[in-house]
């Protein structure tokens, strides 16, 4: 990382959480200049399919606490 980027990062880290999230979103958007319409359509179809699965009861949901516990367990086991 360049000195300029490092200094900018330090300034960004002093922002509020909301401001950092907004800044991060803007930076990510700036990297996606060209939109792949086919990929966008595929993602929209997948999102719709997943919403339908949730709405119909076809998808099993897991509470965040359980997911966090599983992740923590895998991280401590070195997997």
String of helices and strands? HHHH
Poorly predicted parts: none
Beta-strand content estimate: under 5%
Largest sheet: none
Radius of gyration, in angstroms, nearest whole number: 19 Å
- Count of distinct structural domains: 2
Distance linking N and C termini: 29 Å
User: What is the overall number of helices?
Assistant: 4
- Output the structural class: mainly alpha
Mean pLDDT: 93
Percent of residues in helices: over 70%
Please tell me what the overall shape is: extended
Number of strands: 0
Describe, in plain words, how this protein is organized in 3D.
By secondary structure, this protein is mainly α. It folds into two domains: 1-33; 35-79, no CATH class. Helices cover 75% and strands 0% of the residues. The longest helix is centred in the middle third of the chain and has 20 residues, at 37-56. The two termini are 29 Å apart. The model has no long low-confidence stretch (mean pLDDT 93).
Task: Give me some keywords for this one.
79 residues, mainly alpha, 2 domains, 4 helices
Brief summary:
By secondary structure, this protein is an all-alpha fold. 75% of the residues lie in helices and 0% in strands.
Topology:
Layout: H1 3-13, H2 17-31, H3 37-56, H4 64-76
């Amino acid at each position: 990382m360049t000195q300029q980027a490092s200094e900018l990062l330090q300034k960004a880290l002093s922002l509020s959480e909301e401001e950092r999230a907004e800044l991060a979103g803007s930076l990510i958007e700036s990297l996606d200049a060209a939109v792949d319409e086919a990929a966008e359509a595929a993602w929209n179809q997948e999102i719709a399919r997943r919403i339908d699965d949730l709405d119909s009861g076809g998808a099993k949901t897991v509470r965040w606490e359980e997911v966090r516990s599983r992740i923590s367990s895998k991280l401590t086991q070195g997997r």
